[in-house]
Design a protein that fits this description.
Helix content is 42%, strand content 22%. By secondary structure, it is of the alpha/beta class. The chain has a 6-stranded mixed β-sheet with strand order 4-3-5-12-6-13, with helices on one face. A 3-stranded antiparallel β-sheet has the order 10-7-11. The longest helix has 27 residues. It is globular and about 75 Å long.
């Protein structure tokens, strides 16, 4: 049997977890052809097939099931080695911290982390933006910031605050449609929102339910596109209210929409709680969220 590449075993675990090559390739950041080739290499090294590939997905062979069980144990051992290293290095905050969050919170963090680097120059931060939560157990990320509390038992969670939303437009649009805004004559106003695949987002459902409001004429696949459209006068849009303090050009048509409030939770694997680099980032995020809980304009309000 040829030498087995541990990275290929990790990809095998991902294929089994996802159940299909295409979705596993997307999650791994590889093309389906590359992932298929890596699976071929693994099977050649092992001398037997580990999965049967069907049009509807991938199913482990009897031989593959045993390999997968061993690979899973190896993955846990590798994670424990990393956690042990982090505990031993707890006196020195250094290394990379990978944070997974959604779009609005990603913007919130990236615009407030400059002074973190001044305080911890040896800690590097990677902020990975996605609608899909990354797996903390598999170390796809070290920390997750999400508008829900995870239920996994091996995670440490902390409530950071409540993200609130409002309906905004640019100053130029507010001046141009002053009467309609004062009367909340939504039928006379233009709107910016999400595109059809994201029309079921809670904020877009609220926007489309405004009495008499027309469907957004400008539709975006991402939140910051809505921000850009609103800030440049394309229409009214639902935005996270902390943006009001960052964007002087924004005017609130409805400053706070209570039904869109989202509790924000930080979570991390329990094995990382003693890591100096993780602790540094967690404490800093608690600090910046705390500052905004106390803000008069309630960009992030304490519950």
């Amino acid at each position: 049997m040829k030498h087995t590449n541990w990275d290929d075993l990790r990809l095998l675990l991902l294929i089994v977890q996802e159940g299909a090559l295409r979705s596993a390739a997307r999650k791994a950041g590889l093309s389906p052809a590359t992932l298929s080739r890596r699976l071929d290499d693994l099977e050649e090294a092992l001398g037997q097939k580990v999965v049967e590939r069907f049009q509807g997905g991938c199913v482990p062979t009897a031989f593959g099931a045993g390999i997968i069980a061993w690979a899973g144990q190896m993955g846990e051992i590798a994670l424990e080695i990393e956690r042990t290293r982090d505990r031993q290095d707890a006196h020195a905050a250094s290394g990379i911290v990978r944070i997974n969050t959604d779009e609005w919170l990603s913007y919130f963090l990236t615009t407030r982390f400059a002074r973190f680097h001044d305080r911890y120059p040896n800690v590097e931060v990677e902020i990975v933006t996605s609608h899909r939560p990354y797996s903390l157990a598999q170390r796809e990320a070290d920390i997750a910031i999400r508008p829900f509390r995870p239920e996994q038992l091996d995670l440490v969670t902390r409530r950071l605050g409540t993200l609130s939303f409002g309906l905004y437009c640019s100053r130029a649009l507010a001046a141009r449609h002053a009467d309609a805004l004062a009367q909340q004559d939504w039928a006379s106003l233009p709107f910016v929102g999400f595109d059809e695949p994201r029309a079921e987002f809670q904020s877009d459902r609220w926007l489309r339910a405004l009495p008499g409001a027309r469907a957004p004429w400008m539709r975006c696949s991402y939140g910051l596109g809505i921000l850009d459209g609103v800030a440049h006068g394309a229409g009214l849009g639902v935005l996270a209210t902390f943006l009001a303090t960052d964007q002087e050009n924004l005017v609130a048509a409805i400053p706070h929409i209570p039904e869109l409030d989202q509790d924000i939770w930080l979570s991390m694997h329990s094995g990382l709680r003693t890591s100096a680099r993780i602790r540094a980032v967690v404490d800093f995020m608690g600090e910046v969220f705390g500052e905004y809980r106390q803000a008069d304009s309630r960009p992030i309000a304490d519950g």
